[in-house]
Amino acid sequence: MKDHVTTDPLLQPYTLKHLTLKNRVMTTSHEPAYPEDGMPKARYRRYHEERAKGGVALAMTAGSAAVSRDSPPVFNNILAYRDEVVPWIRELTDALHEHGCAAMIQLTHLGRRTNWNKGDWLPSISAGPDREPAHRAFPKMMEDWDIERVIEDYATAAERMQAGGMDGIEIQAYGHLMDQFWSPLSNKLSGPYGADTLENRLRFTTDVLDAVRKRVGPEFIVGIRYTADEVQAGGITAEEGIEISKLLRDTGQVDFLNVIRGRIHTDPAMTDVIPIQGMPSAPHLDFAGEVRRATGMPTFHAAKIQDVATARHAIASGLLDMVGMTRAHMADPHIVRKIEQGREHDIRPCVGANYCLDRIYQGGEALCIHNPATGRELSLPHIINPAANRRRIVIVGAGPAGLEAARVASARGHEVVVLEAANRAGGQVLLTARTKRRAEMMQIIDWRVAQCEAGGVDLRYNQYAEAADVLAESPDVVIIATGGMANTTLYEGDTPEHVVSAWDILSGDVKPAGSLLIYDEAGDHSGLQAAEMAVDAGCTVEIMTPDRTFAPEVMAMNLVPYMRNLQRDEVTFTVTKRLRGVLKDGNRLRAIIGTDYSDKLAQADYDQIVVNYGTMPLDTLYHELRPSSSNGGSIDQASFLAIQPQKMVRNPQGAFQLFRIGDAVSARNTHAAIYDALRLMTAV
Predict the structure, then answer these.
(1) Which residue from 201, 302, 378, 503 could staple onto 28, CB 3.0 to 4.6 Å apart?
(2) For residues 331 and 351, what is the distance between their CA atoms, to the nearest angstrom?
(3) DSSP-assigned letter for residue 493
(4) What is the pTM (predicted TM-score) of this model?
(5) Nearest-angstrom CA–CA distance, 617 and 403
(6) Tens-digit pLDDT profile for residues 176-222
(7) Alpha-carbon torsion angle 573, 579, 583, 589, nearest 10
(8) Are 558 and 276 in contact (CB under 8 A)?
(9) Strands 392-396 and 415-419
(10) What is the C-alpha to C-alpha distance for residues 43 and 95, in angstroms, rounded to an integer?
């Protein structure tokens, strides 16, 4: 055994009650929204199993498995209130145990953190009448029979999880129904469950714990995840949170504490609890350590602990007993295995883009911005298998798509050449990372460059590739990953003179000046990043969109830091207005402004107009090479989707296969570009 395996704090076993966990790394409860019909079927199982194969000691499955019918899923949650969940839980548990990974599940009632127009259309319920801003439903204040019913639901759900072979359960309190009893901000009840005393506010929780223990017995592991400090005036204070922690310990019913800090009732509050890129790492770690010292209880915690060094510090310093690295394991499910093998440098970094969580909260499924195999384990590999035959592959473009194509091709044993016109790799990510808060995005590029260099890829910079350059390489396969260029053509209109693109601002080629209109029809990060740069330059900024909401592609938690910056400087946000044209008026620009809702036109004057309308493919080289290729650039979609080799032949005299990927096809996003490359090259 290597010395670091025996001495690394992260790799030491930990005994929780009767259960021995093989190391100190866990994935905390989260709902990737992969269940089918409310059940954790094959896709869900394979997702967690991959992380178990990668060495994680404990998988806390399910972000908020629902215990009651009036807790309808908002993220395609597991329905723990249905008896048919038991065999699916058994399959999940068995799969994790096969790899030496302990299996637990989080149970909850969402309370007001859901909506009435889902599931069975029952009213949401809570300890008070106020709606949660994030989910907008006005709840029914719980009556005594509601409380009795939900307590019974918790106990029955716990019994189902035990029957499914789980090693334990975690009861979710923070932001959900239990916390709605705990917090003076949300508990408006009177009587034994009212807000007048801490004992009363915790009574619902202690009653649930008592009922659960009567069903599952004293040996089954039961923990609780909760906020020990709401960080809001009138809410649970840190001092009161320590007192709550001690009270939970003193019940004798709780085996571990999983501590967080803050509230999740609004997007900004949740972003402070679960920080994204540009925010401090592990901001609540020391506080979790305070809870551990005050209680002596087994203590778990997770909040932007995305790198091994921070996780190691958390354990070595005695702050935690188990450290959660959840988003980090979405980026790389094999973190622990790589630590054991002395390959920390190979770990694919979590860049904090939060594409995973933001997609869930927008009603989608969790996906990692730069690991498209996550959530797709049934069809895509995390470890690339070698190809049967070695081929020479030429890739044009060293952005995310081109580098991913090169990484996968080299891992399959092919001979790979990458031709890049710029003096460094990165493509559009170079622009994204110019904003200090989004600088972590460069890790998407840096990791792939390092993987390519280790794999023997021939990376050639400062080479603007023309058709003759590609043909001179005698390729078997050519991949065009040249990306796109900023588009300033207005929808179904002309390209107005005098405007600049968001890219012009981000690159520094054009300095923002004076009163400035950012016309944002793409709705992605570029428009808001340009707005931030303009505000920092002292400009008066208006952001205009024809959509009914602005920046819809940025999504909830990523929007928070933008809004904190832009609202500070009173940026004007204008929705449902369409830029129809731009006229020169002396030294100023006159915007012709319409709307999709009527024929009305208006005018407004600005010093500068910035258009953000996506990209147009840089596809000249692709079209020049098509006649020389065997497939004419075509792709068999059925084979592409099935991750099968491309065998399309349109030109038998063609000397090579030709494909284009990423924004060289159409304007999409980083995840789409990398996903294109992975599923194409896995079969080449």
Answers:
(1) 302
(2) 8
(3) S
(4) 0.95
(5) 18
(6) 999 999 999 999 999 999 999 999 999 999 999 999 999 999 999 99
(7) 10
(8) yes
(9) parallel
(10) 12
- Distance (Å, rounded) from C-alpha 12 to C-alpha 161? 28
Cβ atoms of 235 and 267 closer than 8 Å: no
Q: In this structure, what are the phi and psi dihedrals at residue 9, rounded to the nearest 5 degrees?
A: -55, -35
Instruction: Indicate the burial class of 551 (C-beta count within 10 angstroms; 0-12, 13-18, 19 or more).
Output: buried
Place of tokens 């994935």: 27
Phi-psi region of 639 (alpha: psi -120 to 50; beta: other; left: phi over 0): alpha
> What is the spatial distance between Cα 511 and Cα 538, in angstroms, rounded to a whole number?
11
Supply the DSSP symbol for 469.
Answer: H
Angstrom distance (rounded) from CA 414 to CA 389: 8
**Token pair for 139:** 């709840």
Comparing CA positions, the residue from 625, 620, 618 lying closest to residue 666 is 618
SS3 465: coil
Q: Tell me the residue length of the chain.
A: 684
The pair of three-digit structure tokens given for residue 460, joined into one six-digit string: 């050639």
Q: Which residues contact 453 (CB under 8 A, 6 or more apart)?
A: 459
The H or E element containing residue 255 is none
| HEC assignment per residue over 144-183 | HHHHHHHHHHHHHHHHHHHHCCCCEEEEECCCCHHHHHHC
> For residues 506 and 497, what is the distance between their CA atoms, to the nearest angstrom?
20
Residue 2 above 70 pLDDT?
Answer: no
